[in-house]
Each structure stands twice: as structure tokens, then as C-alpha cells.
Amino acid sequence: MLTRIENWIEQRIGWRAAWEAIFLRKIPKVNWLYTLGSASLFVAINQIVTGILLTLYYVPTPDHAYDTVQFITYELPAGWFIRGLHHYGASAMVILAVLHMLRVIAYGAYKYPREVTWTSGVLLLLVVMGFGFTGYLLPWDQRAFWATIVGTRIAGTPPVVGDFILRVIRGGPELSEVTLARFYGVHVWVLPAVLLLLVGVHMVLVIRNGISAPPERGE
Amino acid sequence: MAEDRSVSRRSFLTVATVAIGGVITAIMGIPAVAYIIGPALKKQSEQEWIPVGRASKVELGVPALFKVKIQRKAGWILNEQELSFYVLTEDGRDFIAMSNICTHLGCRARWVANEGIFFCPCHNGVFAKDGTVLGGPPPRPLDRVEVKVEDDQLFILGG
Description:
The structure holds 2 protein chains of 2 kinds. Chain A is 72% helix and 0% strand.
């Protein structure tokens, strides 16, 4: 019965070829460090799911942002758990992505023919940093506010264009409701769109080019 | 050799992956459902006796309108709401209180003194002064509110 259903679907959408290409592809003999990319992907999925759940209650305006975060954390069932997964997942994301990059550097896996995979990975790390920077403001507490004051001032340090950059990021000279709204928009719309696109490119290339074996002495 | 075993390495790993994936999905999925439906399951806040005014203000045999402000919280915003209701006493000792919300579709019924009735303008519902239906579409009498008097102070049970 199950086989018949599988065959029915297979004849119409041909998923078996995709399944084999993704999960049954041939790989060289590798070690546990090669799981860091998959771990990053797993945490990214966690961030997407918990992030979508948080938007059900979070309101990105100065008069509600802090209250909604308190409501999520202390009044909703499992709200502390959902927010906790997103909060600690964010740190795990940065750590795993950096470790994944270090493994690629140490094994020289960025070389031909994987330069584009590497470049998309570097861009993904920048996207992760963007998520961290914009997400940090959203709880709208003292730590969020002052961390973003400092962060935007750092962005404003380049000569000549610095002040302009700071104003663009803050949406004006001061950190305000405009800043909160645009950080939220970037965090939930702009960066996820870029992330999904880059993850797609990154994974197609990993599958197309295969993964590199650990280099051996004398190579 | 793999052929000698009853469970191959591949099928063991498949089952293990699906099982671990299922556990992770449950760990995230069950709290997620609770989190989404939480506000729908929240019970109404506890009722308490709210002081509304002096009992001696109520004339014998004439429903008197009382209004009282209460605070309600649905999520993270504390809202002020006004409850309004009529209090009636025939002898100055026994009081009844009834909501002025028409039992038909929720408009406000008002006391028409010269006719001695409650009238709801939306669909011409008519109630007697004790709240029983005299005419029009209302399906049941005006809803009663629990009321008590202590030292001339009227209280209603609400929240």
C-alpha cells in the first residue's frame, strides 16, 4: 500500500531523484566536524519556527514592545520556552556558523571548485550577524537600547559618510520608534528573504560539487 | 557482515533519525500549540464585589441607572471598561440589579419613566421594570447581576 502511494507520487513529481541527490549522495570519508553545517541549518530552522511564533504576540512599537515581550515570557504557556529557544538559538547560530567556517578554512575546503559555495557562506555569516544586531534591539529593554546606541555609533565612525550611515540605520539622528520599526522589518522580512536565498544557493552547490575530503599529509 | 544481521546499518540509522526527529518535533510542537491557543483558554478573571454607590439613592419602585468603571486586561494592555446596570427596590430592603444590555442582540435598553418600561431602540424590545419581556424579539428577561447592600453601600458582583 505504502509502495503504491510512493509510486503514485513518484510518477507525478519525480521526488526520488531529488531524495537520492540530497540524502543518498556519495561523500568521502569524513569526521564529526563535517556536521557543523547541518547543525547551523538545524538551528536556522529552529530560529525560523520560534521567530514566527514570537511574531504572533510581539508588537514592534515603543509603547508595546517591552510589554509584549514580558507577556510572552511570563504569562503565555510555554512562552518562556519559545523565547528561550530563539534567544539561545541566536547565540548558537553565531557560534556554529563560525566553527563551520573555521573547519572550511582549516581543511582548505574553500578552494576550486567551491569558491562560490564559500562566498555564499561568508555572506550567510554576515546575514547571521545582521540578525543578531537587529534582533538584539527588539526586547526594547535597557540593555537592548544602549547596546544599539553603541552599535549604531560604531557604524557611524567612518570618516565623511559615517554620520549618514548612522542616520540611515537609526532612521534619523536619534534612536527612536523609527529605529525599532525598521530593525523589526529588517529582522523578519529582509534578512529572512536573503537567508533563504543564500541557503538555497549554498546547498545546491554543496550537492552539485560534493564535499571535500579531509586533506592528508603530503597533499 | 551486514547480511548476517537482522537490522542493517542503513535501516537502523533511518529509524533512529526518524525517531529523534519525531522527538524534537514533539518537544517543539506541543509547547508551540499551547503557546498559540493559550489566550483562548484563559479563564475570565475572578469576580469580586464592586462598590457602586449609595443604596438610599434608589427611589422605591423606580429602576435607577448605575455606572461603574472596571479594569480589564486581555493581553498586555490594561483597559478601562464601563459596566452599567439598573437597580430596583420595591421596599428599600431587597434590591435587584439587572444589566441594561438587551438580551436580543446586545444594544442598550433604557428606562422610559412615563411608560414604566425598559425599551431597546434597536428592534423595539420591551421589558417590564423587573426585567421580564413584555414585547418584541428579546428571548429572555434582562440578565440579573448579583447585588448586596452593606451600610447603605451597594455592591455588585463583577469583574
